[in-house]
Specification:
The complex is a heterodimer of chains A (459) and B (137). Chain A has 459 residues and is α+β, with helices and mostly antiparallel strands. In chain A, 35% of the residues lie in helices and 21% in strands. In chain A, a hairpin with a 2-residue loop joins strand 22 and strand 23. The longest helix of chain A is centred in the C-terminal third of the chain and has 32 residues, at 358-389. Chain B folds into two domains: 1-83, Jelly Rolls, CATH 2.60.120; 94-131. Classes of the chains: A alpha+beta (459), B alpha+beta (137).
């Protein structure tokens, strides 16, 4: 890497300034973390470099072995790959094979205090994927399926990335480059560093000595549990449906029940999630009604309490450095893997076509991060509106269900409530677009109509 | 085929879309093969066969025209559909997403140009000029 002469660089990346930091043939790039954000970044950086005939050396540092069952091989989340991400990956030439997808999903069942309603994909096409981030829950035996994170890491390695199974425990700036230290090895020097360690790690502490403006995101706790029912029981009870719960439990925004192979994963998200509130939710009749008869909430085979972003990181970039995925900016409550994809692509595009100086990263990657963070603010407004007007009131909860039910046979474009709920839970559209639709007079006139029907039926 | 996998499974001979239909989706083959069939004067001409990882129906995303051919499953096939609205929104945010589509379309134009060239030289060898609009053709 060097500061370039503009006149020598009249190629596809022709708008370089003379003082601009950029990657050149032979530049070394490190990625800390081989989860989705790190693997996507490695994959797309190498792909885009190939397009502009740039030869890079890229090392991914990931100590975790995704072929292990239980917590040692797992990155801890509900494991839903959204409809929009599956479609985008297919267009990028990354098709998720059956051995990665535990179960393809064709519908959501929304439960609230007034009942439940089903939302389906067109033609019941399986457009949502349930995956295990590792090989599977603790004790899983002879799984013919593989880890989602492991699959993505394999793709990055196949693209040319070098996988180093070490934990980075030190970072320093040395002569304008970045030096990484691992236990027992010589320090390695890089021209650019992508940090994708997630937030459930102490690795972010090593950056406090670098004097950069980065501040990690504020976090919230979640609870995830896996239950073993066996494939036939899962097929008979859940089919290809993810259950979402918007129930009135203090501090909890929503919960999801996701069937996967022989197992079912239950995940709960909210501002203040505690073990006690989790147990209250699991004991609600709405949750019990969708589980197999005789289900005991305490008989889980694997569980974890990972932290997730509640706000994005402050300044998730610095000179020759970018913070991706959960340790950068993610989407509020939904589509964490999709957010990692978007951030990784924005960062790799900035690095290849803009530069690796702080100002270049700010202009391109910073803008994308801010867009996501601003959208999360709107997401918080939407969840606040749900908390205020839907969850506590049986009339509005009932009207919501009635409206969704009546819309199922209508063409797309006339499914006001269904599309809002679908997009809030799947991440198929930004929150700002969802809010915009919520303020549409046509939506409100129909909503008031169904509130009226619910009032009449109740009386 | 694995019923838990992504996409929709079509049986052998099942039509994914017909020539003349209006479409707002493109399709990516996950498993199996399809044939692209042009229906002309009551006859069917197979103009292409597409396999795993390949896409078809992409023209519907960029122009609001009728489908120019029928696509049928060759054996059992698993296909993922991509909505126009979703794709265009994402291309607006991330133009690099369109590069893979453009690369494939470019390869198809190259292949078609080669076939048109070979056809023209074959017609010339027969003493027929395609550019003159020979009525015997």
């Amino acid at each position: 890497m060097r500061k370039t002469n503009f006149t020598k660089q009249f190629n596809i990346r022709q708008q370089w300034r003379p003082d601009q930091l950029r990657l050149e043939d032979g530049s070394r790039v490190a990625v800390m973390g081989g989860g989705p954000a790190g693997s996507f970044f490695g994959y797309f950086l190498l792909e885009q470099a190939e397009r502009v005939s740039l030869k890079l050396q890229l090392d991914i540092y990931e100590p975790r072995d995704y072929s292990l069952a239980g917590p040692p091989g797992c990155n801890m989340c509900a494991g839903i790959v959204s409809e929009s991400l599956i479609q985008m990956l297919a267009l990028d030439g990354i098709n998720l094979p059956p051995r990665v997808v535990q179960r393809g999903m064709d519908s959501y069942m929304l439960h609230n205090n007034a009942g439940q309603v089903r939302l389906e994909t067109p033609y019941l096409e399986k457009r949502i994927g349930a995956v295990f981030r590792g090989t599977g829950p603790r004790g899983i035996a002879n799984s013919e399926r593989i880890s989602f994170d492991g699959f993505l890491l394999e793709r990055a390695v196949a693209k040319g990335a070098n996988l180093i199974r070490k934990r980075v425990d030190g970072v320093e700036r040395v002569d304008g480059r970045i030096q990484l230290k691992t236990r027992g090895d010589q320090p390695q020097v890089y021209d650019f560093l992508a940090v994708a360690t997630g937030v459930n790690t102490s690795a972010l502490r090593i950056f406090s000595s670098l004097n950069i403006s980065y501040q990690p995101p504020r976090l919230a706790l979640t609870f995830v549990r896996d239950y073993l029912f066996g494939r036939e029981q899962v097929e008979a009870t859940f089919g290809h449906t993810i259950h979402f719960f918007m129930l009135d439990v203090e501090g909890l925004d929503f919960a999801a029940v996701v069937p996967k192979g022989d197992y079912v994963t239950i995940c709960v998200l909210g501002k203040v999630v505690t073990q006690e509130r989790f147990e209250i939710l699991l004991d609600k009749p709405a949750v019990r009604s969708c589980m197999p008869p005789g289900w005991d909430p305490k008989e889980y085979v694997c569980h974890c309490a990972p932290r997730i972003n509640f706000t994005g990181a402050v300044h998730p970039y610095a000179e020759q450095m970018v913070f991706l995925g959960d340790c950068g900016v993610a989407r509020l409550y939904k589509d964490g893997i999709g957010a990692a994809y978007r951030a990784a692509k924005a960062a790799s595009t900035a690095v290849i076509y803009s530069g690796i100086g702080e100002a270049d990263l700010e202009r391109y990657y910073g803008r994308a991060s801010r867009r996501m963070e601003n959208d999360n603010v709107i997401g918080k407004i939407i969840f606040a509106l749900i908390d205020l007007f839907v969850k506590p009131w049986r009339i509005t909860a009932s009207a919501t269900l009635r409206m969704v039910e009546s819309e199922q046979k209508k063409p797309a474009g006339q499914r006001w409530m269904s599309e809002i709920i679908w997009d809030v839970f799947t991440g198929s559209a930004p929150y700002r677009e969802v809010l915009w639709r919520m303020f549409n007079p046509a939506f409100w006139s129909r909503m008031l109509w169904y509130v009226g029907i619910s009032l009449v039926r109740r009386s | 085929m694995d019923n838990n996998a992504l996409g929709r499974i079509y049986d052998a001979g099942e039509v994914i879309f017909r020539q003349g239909d209006l479409g707002d989706q493109m399709y990516v083959i996950q498993e199996g093969k399809v044939e692209v069939v042009l229906e002309q004067d009551g006859k069917e001409i197979v103009i292409a066969v597409r396999g795993p990882g390949e896409f078809f129906g992409e023209m519907a995303l960029f122009e609001r025209e009728e489908r120019m051919a029928t696509v049928r499953a060759l054996g059992q096939v698993r296909i993922l559909s991509v909505d126009r609205k979703n794709l265009l929104r994402r291309v607006h945010e991330d133009p690099s997403l369109a590069v893979h589509i453009i690369q494939t379309m470019s390869q198809r134009i190259r292949k078609l140009s080669g076939e048109v060239g070979r056809l023209e030289s074959w017609l010339l060898e027969l003493g027929l000029s395609p550019k003159a609009g020979n009525n015997k053709l």
